[in-house]
Amino acid sequence: MQHNRIAHRTVLRRLPLAAAVALVFSSPLAWAQSADAPAKQDKDARTLDTVTVTAQKRVENLQEVPISIQVLGNAQLEQQNVAAFNDYAKLIPSLSFGTSGGGVFSGPGFVQLYMRGVASGNDANHSGSQPSASMYLDEQPITTITGALDIHMYDIERVEALAGPQGTLYGANSQSGTVRIITRKPDPSGYSAGFAVEGSKIEDGGIGHVLEGFVNLPISTNAAVRLVGWQKHDAGYVDNIHGTRTFPTSGITIDNADRVEKNFNDANTAGIRGALRFDINDNWTVTPQLIAQKMKAHGSTGVDPNVGNPGFGYDTSTADLAVKHFYPESSDDKWYQAALTVEGKVGNFDLTYVFSHLKRDVDSEADYADYGFWYDSLAGYGAYFYDDNGDLINPSQYIQATDGYKRTSHELRISSPQDKRLRMVAGLFWQEQSHDIFQRYKVDNLATDIEVNGWSDTIWLTAQRRKDADKAVFGEVAYDLTDRLTLTGGMRFFRNNNSLKGFFGYGDGFSGSTGVSQCFSTEQFHGAPCVNLDKKTSESDHIGRVNLTWQIDDKKMVYATWSEGYRPGGINRRGTLPPYTSDFLTNYELGWKTSWADNKLVFNGALFREDWKDFQFSYLGQNGLTEIRNANSARIDGLELDLAWAATYNLQINGGFAWYDAKLTANYCGWLKADGKPETNCPAGTLDPNGDAVAGPLAASGTRLPVTAKFKGNVNARYTFDWRGGEAYWQATTAHQGDRTNDLRDAQSAVFGKMGAYTTLDLSTGWRKNSWAVDVFLKNATNQRAELARFSECAALTCGQESYTVFAQPRTLGVRFSKEF
Question: Which of 212, 387, 428, 452 could bond 461 through an S-S bridge, CB–CB 3.0 to 4.6 Å?
């Protein structure tokens, strides 16, 4: 009887998949037979639509832009049910990403993106390197030190992914590429509105929903307002299951019975976006914009595959998609960005000014019990934690944090008429961003004499302010050598400033090497007992770009590009370490944009080599502090292909593919030489700066760079047909990503292991009639356990045995109703 119940539940779980598959693959046959449209349409291929972009800060046909760029238009975003970063990231082959949250919380809200394999791993710490790839919302940068905003993707015109260094026209964080999210703008020509309601169920998880709508309101013949709003519940699918853990030194056992919760990694989000367009006259337009969002998230997205391992102090069996955490985990994330764009003409020159101001506040809390357990297991850490009576206590830590971000930017640029043989664009850019960091690492019942001075139950305190400022002058000139041959050159001159001030560390009763014992000022910075870090650094340099484009005919173009990108340096939090300097990326690229068969087939691609010099490498060092070194040099060879094919009137196929060979070109030894350059010669027996003999390089020349797969690709097929007076469709999208490593260094990479290759399948079907539409989708239809990221709570060689893996959301069945007016 029990067996029958289990079998019955299994059948029920599989019914949505079976029904959707049957519906999707039977629809072209069964429905097409009753279609009102003549069968002849299947034989007449429609042409592909022209795609316009603003990647070079002017409106152009995608097929005429000599850049490796992939575009997801409004129709494709809606057809693929793209709602967040993860949804469109799998459709962009050049894009890789991390998923850990900002601050200390491992959850949604922050995006760490990488492009073309330019990644060394372990970024996105508040005192770490700036991102190597940037994200823009329209003209405004939305990348902070710990990652970019994860914008809700509704009423979006398109997404542009510009691969490769974009340093001439874009700023410091565009070293390896730029992702631009272009919103739909207010339109004074007429009223329009729409809404959508969506419900979804995650297999063995919770139920989610999305409510969203927009309205475009003309105020007059030259002004309009566009308002967008959304509210959504992201359902959870990770369980916090019951268990106990025993610390070896004290024998103390802790129990998480009061924290047990099924599907505890859920999130509730609400947001608004508004823009006003005012045409002052035929030449000048002003567009103020505001976007704001609030998200409350719970639980860890990372899964612990060892929750039942007795060697990790646990006492119960392993469970799928589960953790055993003992302390609260949540994030209360509130942000807004205000922007102003002014566009006009001075004579026959176009003038554009863009202002933006981003403010973000995140209150978070996180379980940090792994840190205490592993340091106790490996080094008897628990012997140092006691109460006021001198008795040993539970050494588990948990974190309470508040992170405040601000970013203000200005850009002023002028461009000459683009129909002239000689044309140019030039501009000024200025931005300043700050991060107020407050992190309190707590241990319950901690003795007064070993806590941070003035902070009860606090073993470690971080209270700092980081500031990063960038100034730049940029310009680009294009000249048509002939009617079909164009030479373009550009330069960007920049100056960067970085500072870090405040307190970090232990109380003076716990450590004599860091914290209060190292203070040089009694200033109570952000409430800390004193100041033990106050450093600044600045740099100035320039980068360039040269491009030669040959327009073979109206449908085919090839180009060759040499370009540079950079990422600013900064201050190490450990005061005894020197600052890290800017790293530079040099790109050599040959690309093509071609259209065939009367614009029924588009085939674009790029073949490139990128040399990454003195790249910044972040890792967790002593006391769990992030340390950044200029590691050495690397090379990325790659091929990117983009395909769109209108196979028949009804069937369109799209695909994107990328192959990368990203590896070190010199040994990484782990320290700098006297001249500040990375040491590359360190055979076994070499003495490091501390006088210790090493076993050889931490990563030898030829070692593969982490995060990025050697191959990533996707294929989408969409079949549309007339049915019952409307248009119906079925669609299938498959995406594949190869295996990846998680750390540059050999020993740490061996502990973490590789993240396995995976292939996912998304299915959908739907029907639209007049202004109404209904869509049924099945994401991750095969319920693939796709490994997206891996991390541990402390250094890999200490806590890495208990690493956490972030998996793609399990199979999810959803229904969406939408209407436009």
Answer: 452
